[in-house]
Amino acid sequence: MPITAKLSRRFYEQSGDELANELVDWFNSVDATYRSDLERLNELNFARFDAKLEQRLAQMDAKWELRFAQLDASFEKRLVTGLASLRSDLIRWMFAFWTGTLLALAGFLYAMLRGRP
Question: How far apart are CA 79 and CA 102, in angstroms?
């Protein structure tokens, strides 16, 4: 939106309408040129900013993906280790239980066969 330059009436009277209007047109032309240059510069700067932002977001996304993968691997390793430990503990307890049960049963059968209640 161009801003029309206004000059004083006295300037118009001293230099004439034609020269004053030409000067006003020149000011408006310079203003339009500066505005278009500024707009183009702002668009270029925004495009650079947008590209850098996209690049940084991609880097952060890759970094978070790596961290989540590491966390997932660590969690999976702990889970597997924990389950293996639980399995070995369970097998030990089952062996102890069944061994004790079989010994008690053998003792009971031995006592029954010998005639002792």
Answer: 34
Distances (CA, A) of 90 to 83, 93, 94: 10, 5, 6
Residues contacting residue 4 through CB under 8 Å, at least 6 positions apart:
24, 28
For residues 102 and 107, what is the distance between their CA atoms, to the nearest angstrom?
8
SS3 24: helix
Query: Which SS3 state, helix, strand or coil, does residue 87 take?
Result: helix
Which residue, 26, 23, 25, 28, is CA-closest to 12?
Answer: 23
Return the higher-pLDDT residue of 101 and 3: 101
How does pLDDT run across 40-58, given as a tens digit for each residue? 999 999 999 999 999 999 9
Cα radius of gyration (the chain): 46
